Here is the input.
Amino acid sequence: MKRKNAWSSYTEADIAALEAFSADYRAFLDAGKTERECVAEAVRLAEARGFADMNCVTAAKPGDRLYLNWMNKSILLFAIGTEPIESGMNILGAHIDSPRIDVKQNPLYEEEDLAYLDTHYYGGIKKYQWVARPLALHGVIAKKDGSVVCVNIGESEDDPVFCISDLLPHLAQEQMKKDAAKVVEGENLDLIIAGKPLGGEEKDAVKANVLKLLEAKGIEEEDFISAELEIVPAGKARDMGLDRSMILAYGHDDRVCAYPSLRAVLDFEGTPERTLCAVLTDKEEIGSVGATGMDSMFFENAMAELCALLGERTELSVRRCLRNSRMLSSDVSAGFDPLYASAFEKKNAAYLGRGLCFNKYTGSRGKSGSSDANAEYVAEIRRIMDDAGVAYQFAELGKVDLGGGGTIAFCCAKYGMNVIDAGVAVLSMHAPFEVINKADLYEAYRGYCAFLK
Ligand code: MN
Ligand code: MN
Here is the structure.
């Protein structure tokens, strides 16, 4: 079933709204290149709209706006509805971690007058894409005294950037014969951070100079042990194409779903009937594991806290709330790429510009690892989207047996709630710079707003 391109039905007013939303989204991407930065930005936006920290209230009532910051890496936002919490929530979920390269715990070394940080990549990357390009360093260094130093180097015009080197083609005869997975090996993704020796030092003088620079900031070498430093592509999100119809940026996966999910809850006016929830979570790229991943109890614990704030203090209320909730688990979908058409099955591919993309199921091989949405729920979603005039499409990640992937859907499906994957089609997913179409971003926002109503 061929779907129309969303742009073809836009009025001038639609396009003005789409461009305004796209500009806001680009600003969010530039402010949030790590999960921590995304949470900080979400808190800032939420507080500006009158959302209160859930830890600072003792009771909640319909109409209240609350947020819960979980370890600075995941965040929940609520707009409390008039219906009892036991009747469930409308939930929008997405992840805010993106594939990247992390700095190891004992990273700093010098080799032949160059100082490096040793690294360990995070998420599914094609390692050869990350060499010979400007990189920035974002994150935190937690010190023993309890203070936390925020790091953000490589984004402003006068900042230095960093780089991972690659072998020159003149000497790459052996390298070029290798499997693409091994052209650049994981242990070769070390970041060059300095090349000037400290005068008077005999051994490791470049490293000594780095340590001197760190010392001036109150940081010692041992502090790397309790640091989380993420290496990401340097530079801002940009409009792409002569017609400016697309956005080229780092981290569309999955901020292109997280941002419209956040905005749909922030922008909701008045008191909703069902309680609305947005959950922006960490660690999806490595399986939703860990204390800040969607498979952690943090979400369920937060629901128990919310029920208590609403006067429902029994375990059964929490179970009923979760069971009766419905969710759009939003994650990016593989956009059909005409240059790699053979990886897709055209009838069931996601196309750039054709609107919000639903995946009834994901998974690999025989749908392994998938949360397969119920047909009845899919029908309800179709009705909501059609009634709101949202452009949408249904797709699979790619051809059967070529690979596959998972999302956070399974984590919420375990409560027995209805959940379906919904998101935006992306070209070059997991590459340092990914491509989305602005119409899909805008239709995602419109679709999420319709779902909350
Ligand atoms: Mn994703
Ligand atoms: Mn991903």
